[in-house]
Amino acid sequence: MDIVNRPPGADLARDNPMPLYYQIANVLRSRIDTGEWVVGDRLPSEAQLAASFKVSVVTMRQALSLLEQQGRLSRQQGKGTFVTATEEPTDRVRITVPLELVSEAVAGLDVRALGVTEVVPPTDIRTTLGLEPGEPCVQVRRVRSGTRGPITFATSYLPRWLGEGLTMADLQQSMMIDILEKRGVHFHGAIQTIEAALAEPDTAAVLSVPVGAPILLVRRIYELEDGRVGYVALNRHPSHEIRYELRLSRGEADGGRWALPDPRGEPRQDTGTG
User: Which helix (H) or strand (E) holds 189?
Assistant: First the structure.
């Protein structure tokens, strides 16, 4: 499908030290990640994109080249530039820890609800939640702050049956999982991924960082006891406020393999790459 160009509006910060081509690449990457552009879509021409962002063709070419290097776009001679499938990371570490530690980690932080509304979710969220195309879900946006300012911009996506009835007063509590379990919903566990990202304009405003600043994007998929996905949480953190530290031990019972001890002192959980 050919993509119809749209004005980027305030997506670029002209006074930001982050190069314009980097900001543009960030905006285009976001359109792919949110499902606005899907695999196989053909982008507008370099000239059309440059005109819409009010930058030179050279700057736009730099942005597209960066996304091509990252495997998000492919250029086909005489045909155009297309969105490509994202490959899995070449290295991955799997760590198993008690889910309660997630709640303990944010205990004591101030929580402010920014809004709860029904939205049609991005394609990746819709697929994860098992929703039909165009089917809405409940989006909850909150910010957690410590003594030095905002620490987390949290956006949660819930199926309507789970999110309906949530109020702004409910959302002043620290963890969404605690709010939902008080309503009688029980969760089996969660899958968490952590990756580097750049701050989009709305994220930058909430976290008080420049547009394009490095952030950590923590994605959690919470699973119900029956195996279904309950909800998806996207937590964005300023890179200077978050540090993950792991202590690996080397045991003789498993041939000297490095592993992560359980933080509660229980038998060691398996840690591997794949």
Answer: strand 187-198
